[in-house]
Each structure stands twice: as C-alpha cells, then as structure tokens.
Amino acid sequence: MNKPDTKRSAKPELHPRNPHRARYDFPALIADSPDLQPFIRPNRFGNESIDFGDAAAVKALNRALLKHFYGVAYWDLPAGFLCPPIPGRADYIHYLADLLATSNDGSIPRGPAIKALDIGIGANCIYPIIGTREYGWRFVGSDINTTAIAAAKTLVSANPCLAGKIEARLQDRDDRIFAGIWRNGERFDITLCNPPFHSSKAAMTAESNRKWRGLKHGKASAAPKLNFGGQANELWCDGGEEAFVCRMVRESRSFGERCCWFSSLVARQSSLSGIYRELKKAGAAQVRTVEMAQGQKISRFVTWSYLGPEQREAWRAARWKG
C-alpha cells in the first residue's frame, strides 16, 4: 500500500461546485416551499435563519433545499429518522466526483454508466438524490432498517426525476456490509458511507448534550434533543466509526476487483491510524484521505482502491469512455 495521501480544501469552506456555499436565500426557498415560512426568525446577529435546535425547522429547511436545488418535489421522513444537513452531504458527493476524475484524465465521469453504492442510505436518501441530480449517476443504497428502505423507495417513486435511478436494498444481516447487497457480477465505480459515529448510546447522549448547549449558546437544557434525529443503527455501533470502517475495509477485499474506489467518511482524526493499519493489512493499492471544511468544522473521508494504475485505466476504458 502506498503512503496515504491527504488532500484538503485550501480554505475552510464548501466545495467550489457546492450550490450551498452562499447564505441561505430564504425568500427564494420560501417561494418554492411556503411551509418553511413559519420557521424563519432572526438569529442573534439579526439575520434571517431558523432555530437549528428545532427538528421540525431543520426538516422544513431540508425539504426546501431539496426542492429548490435538486428538483425533488416530495421529500419526507418517518418520525425519529436521521434528517442530515444538506450542505455537508453535497460536499462528499462533489469530492467523490473529483476523485473519479483523477482516474479519468481529469474529467468527471457523468451519466447512468456510473454506478455508486451508498452504505446506509437511511430514510432520507440524501446522497443518492444529490449524486443523481448533480452528475446523473445511478445508485444502489443499502440499509438494515426495513422502515428506512420503505421510506427511501417511497421518495424515489414519488419523484419522476429519481425514478429508475436509485435502488434501495435491505441488508438482512447486521454483521455484513457488502455481502448480501453486492450481487454476482455487479460492479460499482464508487462506494460511500456515513458510518455510525458513536460507540454507544451513552457516548451519543453526552455528545448531543454538548452540541445542544452550543446551539443554545451555553444555556443548559433539562431535555436536550437530537435536532437531526436518527435511529440507533444510524448513530452508534460497538467500537464506533473506527471499528465499523475497519470492518468495511476487511470485507471490501473480497470485492476489490469489482470496484474502482471504496470510501467512507471519518469524523474523528484519531480514527485514522487504525483504519490505515487495516488498509495496509488488506493490501489496498492506493489510499487517500480527503479533507473537507464547512466554516470551522473539518471533516474528511478515506478512500481506497485495490486496482493498480493499469487496472484503473482498463476500468476507465471499459466503463467510462464514450
């Protein structure tokens, strides 16, 4: 395995192609989604905003963003499921597009010939929506939650711009990630994942309390809430993200010749050393870490490939040219 490359954005801001780099244009969003209007209020700086501690407001904002920027007319979630912030999700997709471009003479492969696998599609279906609408890619999304799969299927079927481009598959065993989802002979150009971050419910609750105090500007709350929601499998697993991604690495080896690039978000810098060790043991031919930024928040994803330069060129010739 080559020494992991680390690439980062030059400034702490979103990807240049991310349409959410500017402040939210609330009049334009409300024009498309009038249901957002009741949630608009001045923030402590006197600017129009929403209360990001209010789960209903976050959901209304997401619905407006998806309609305004991606043409998704219907978007809803079952109660209690993860309602993720859209700008950061879009950044991951755009940086993955750049990654594919590095294997395609600098040109981003676009269109339905490109097939991506989203591990943990959730009920929100955000990554496939953005990838399909921005680059025309096809997606398979997996999840171990039957309600999430049903909700994702409903979202896809309710929006003609998504129909036939996104497939949701149930993972019926929680000890497997790729096996059982990856069909015989199937190839993916890229895989992506937002792994469970926390190691336990207690750890998740402590982090939620800290974030809630931040949202309330240091004020304590007797009943802190998860403003972005989330089911257990979306939020924590034994060993947290490091254990999950290491397990993904071990399993990916069996599919190494059927994928150009694997990837996963990694929230904690401290998780990287263990993941790098697992990638070395797995025999990854190339490993990269791409850093992303939104304001003062730094995030990253690790990506790896078992294909050498000649194999990636053969992959490009077979799947992307023309």
Concise description?
The protein has 322 residues and is of the alpha/beta class. It has helices spanning 26-32, 55-70, 86-102, 126-135, 146-158, 201-215, 232-235, 240-252, 272-282, 309-319; strands at 5-8, 41-42, 48-49, 115-119, 138-143, 166-170, 188-193, 259-265, 286-294, 297-305.
Describe this structure in words.
This protein has 322 residues and is an alpha/beta fold. It has a single domain, classed as Rossmann fold (3-Layer(aba) Sandwich), CATH 3.40.50. It contains ten helices and ten strands. The chain has helices at 26-32, 55-70, 86-102, 126-135, 146-158, 201-215, 232-235, 240-252, 272-282, 309-319, and strands spanning 5-8, 41-42, 48-49, 115-119, 138-143, 166-170, 188-193, 259-265, 286-294, 297-305. It has an eight-stranded mixed sheet, sandwiched between helices. Strands 2-3 form a two-stranded antiparallel sheet. Helix 3 packs across helix 4. The protein is globular and about 55 Å long. Residues 202-206, 220-224 and 230-236 have low confidence and may be disordered. It is found in: Cytoplasm. Belongs to the methyltransferase superfamily. METTL16/RlmF family.
